[in-house]
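Notes taken during the Thursday session

The instructor put the following on the board and asked us to keep it in front of us for the whole hour. The protein is Lipoprotein. We were told not to look anything up and to reason only from what is written here. First, the residues (86 in total):
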Amino acid sequence: MKKFIVSFALLAVFASCKEETQEKLDAAKDALSEEVKENVDSVKAKTEKVLDSTKEKLKSKVDTLLVKGASKVEEKAKQIKESAKK
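Then, after some discussion, the predicted structure tokens were revealed:
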């Protein structure tokens, strides 16, 4: 009978430890999930900033190239008109 009571007491202690351990695991899981979410948000914000910056730079370069191209086309058109008049 004593062995039964001692065994039952040990099972009760292990069961209560298991609940505490499970609570600690849940808390750690929640903390880790929150940290991962924060890191993902941070990386997302940085990526968006870099993409916006790159987009603006490319747009500026394309605009510059379009202006240069248009001026060259106009220049060539003038040359063709002049040579056609001769």
